[in-house]
Amino acid sequence: MIKTFCLTISRIRLIVGLLNRPPRVLLAAFGLFGTLIIAVIPTFAAPASGEFIADKRCELFQSKNKQTNPDQWQSNIGERYPVLEILGNSLKPDWLRVRTNAIKSPMRWISGACGQYQSNIAGSKLSIPATAVEPAQTTTAADIKAKNRDSLKEHGATQKSQGDQCRIGEKFDANVLALSWQSTFCELYGSRKAECHALSQTSESTQWQHFSLHGLWPNKQQCGTRYGYCSTVKLQPNDFCTYPEFELNPSVRKNLEEVMPSARYGTCLERHQWWKHGTCRSQDPNEYFLLATQLTQAVNASAWVQGFIHERIGKNVTKSELNQSFDASFGKGAHTKMSLECAKGLLSEIRINLPEVIKTSDSLPSLLAKADKAKKGSCPETITIDQPN
After folding, report:
1. Model pTM score
2. Mean pLDDT across the chain
3. Which CATH number fits the domain that encloses residue 88?
């Protein structure tokens, strides 16, 4: 009892002492108390929409706090992920919860430092979360939770409706030809890949000297990167080789293996490209891969690759030099239809925008002239064209 009384007297003396201090000291003291109070207020994730564009390889966590990552999923550079929730600043979140193709826990957390967040507030059908506004005095915690729950249900129903529309074949409105620089892929990501091990046996292989086919991606504007899986397969497996097999004509297979090392050495990238992208464009994998290989061969046969790129393997180039050379081969302004993707300063991929309709008789310059402008890629002003190690 005496201890309690003495503690109370001490607190009273502290308050009285503060009140006798100059105003500046009072403000500083109350500012310190306010900071301490704010520091213990928990931060909650808020529902969000838009896309997160990864510009780094980062882990995709099931739980960001426990750092759990089933199947060791990582973001792909240039990949666009639909955003479901954000934590932190609404323009530059610390963490974002995104939708992935992971089989186990497809909703994953990624650090905001791993890319750029493009919000879609104007187009979002989400109501403002109840926690973001000051509730009326009659509003209870249960009311706030109920409003948030209803908002999430509405968001989920909207996404399901859009998701159904994003899995209907032959409803695309544009295409993207994605071509990888094999040396960068093997150096940074493919150390365990059979194709990288085989190609490392000789630095003279022609597959080090040109771009490799990553994929031909039909796109639907309202779906973004979610347009895909338009057939019986609806999810990406952990291992591409567990996708169902499909038959290709010998001539198509031969041409494909020349531009896609994974298909040649059995790591099954072609299966992923067919089931995720090809099924949305065609019902015949022969037709899909015939067009994809022809477009790839047209790029690799150009003066841009045969001259400019070949002469600069192992060297640095500026983005403007690379773009000017691309225009010289494919037409004025053609570089605006291409995005350049880099990792650690190395050119890793080019993504070329193409129109909806592509005929086998169309030249690449004529297709580029009809295509929409590409989004800005991740490359810095100075780019290294990697050489095989």
Report:
1. 0.63
2. 81
3. 2.30.30
